[in-house]
Amino acid sequence: MSWLTYYLGLFPGLFLLQRDVTCKEYQKVDMIIKLQDTVMLKCAYPEMGKMIQLSWEKKDGDAKHKIAVYNPKRGEYIFFPYNQSVTFLSSSISGDIKLKATAADKGLYQCSINTFPEGVLLKLIAVIDPAKFPRSRAADSRVQIVPGNIMTLSFGYPNVDSITQLTWQRMAGEEISIIVDITPSQSFIGYDYKRRIRFIQSPDQNISLTIENVTTNDVGVYSCHIDTNNGNWTKTFDVDVEDEQSNLPPTRNHATPKVLTEAQNQPAKADIKMFLIFGAIALGSLVLVISVVTIICVWRSKKRKANNTQFQKDTTERHNQRRANPNSYTNPDVYDRPNSRGMEYQEEAIYANL
Question: Which CATH fold would you assign to the domain 36-128?
Answer without folding.
Answer: Immunoglobulin-like (2.60.40)
